[in-house]
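Explain this one:

_____
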Amino acid sequence: MSFREFVFTDIPDLRLGINNWQTRCITSQFDVDTQPDLALAKRYLREEYAWVGLTERYNDSLELLSYTFGWPSLIQYEKQNVTPNRIDHIEPDILARIQELNQIDIALYAFAVELFEKRWRIMQADKSGISPNVFTIFDDTRARIDNLFAKTPC
């Protein structure tokens, strides 16, 4: 099967993997005949995921990961296994089809970038001594966790 055939396939199991796959994975919504819930995926990223990283900001993502969990700074990543025969051009109709099939993932990615930037700014402010509360990033999540523990009999 060529790449073109794959992108334009009508085979349900294959179509599922190229139709908003990231949002489906986050929300556990794998019915090929329905679209995954973007609002639910955003809520999960905002409230359930302590950390969100970006491939294009890999080193910054490692720094935010270390900060988020109170770990020592991780060693900066060095690209070692770069694909030598990378495809630099995708035919416009194929690219348009991929974008059409992934509108929800594209919107979720834009949200993830905003979330990353917000958490990055908070980390930078905290590291420079501006923010007194290391948990500022997770106020909503922390309040829910505190409430949960308050309800447990232990």
In short: The helical segments are 3-7, 12-17, 21-27, 38-47, 58-69, 92-101, 103-127, 139-151.
